[in-house]
Amino acid sequence: RSMDSTTAPASPTPPTPTPPPTARPPAADLWQRLEDRFGRRQFLLKSGWAFFWVFLGGWLLSNLRYLFPNILYEPTLSFKAGFPKDYPVGVSEKWKKLQRAWIVRTDKGFYCFWARCTHLGCTPNWFEAESRFKCPCHGSNFNKDGDVIAGPAPKPLWRCALTIADDGQLMVDKARLENRQGAREQGEFFLPYEGA
Q: What global pTM score does this model have?
């Protein structure tokens, strides 16, 4: 029915009072906002996908690191050590740090030690005043010929093969080693040198 000017307007109903907001913990507010925005089903679905992508990204990164490993570069097993005339009589420590080798010149020729203790693999030091190699780890001592004179080392120092290269330089080969008495003084483990 249409309203004409003679009818009185309906009285407005008073607004119903809203209860005062109850204090919610912040976590409940967060969950409520997420539920209002996404709905529980959407929230769980999006959370599942987020977890999947984070897991997949981590897995891909770990596999990518596998393709680029941390590499420790080892020195080559054979190297040229310079010309024989450049070495005075005695033990040369020129190659100890770079190649872990000592070149020894005697009155009769050359030989080369691998600078590795035969006990547990530490690097001994040469003491010129005492004419011996001493291992700082467990006290093994070796004479100038590499023989054990003290300590727990079970074998003499290893001798490396030593030859003259085509250009006249000393060529050390740490892939071929010998430490048996008698065998180490011959063949390629002792290099006679006429200019000695």
A: 0.58
If asked whether residues 39 and 131 sit together in one domain, one would say no
- Show Cβ contacts of residue 95 under 8 Å, excluding neighbours closer than 6 positions: 79, 81, 101, 102, 103, 172
Nearest 5 degrees, angle CA 177-CA 181-CA 186? 65
CA angle 76, 79, 82 (to 5 degrees): 150
Could you tell me if 59 and 153 lie in one domain? no
Q: What is the chain's percent helix, strand, coil content, to nearest 5?
A: 25, 25, 50
User: In which domain, by residue range, is 88 found?
Assistant: 78-192
Q: Is residue 107 part of a domain?
A: yes
pLDDT digits (tens, 9 = 90+) for 63-111: 888 888 777 777 778 889 889 888 889 899 898 888 889 999 988 888 8
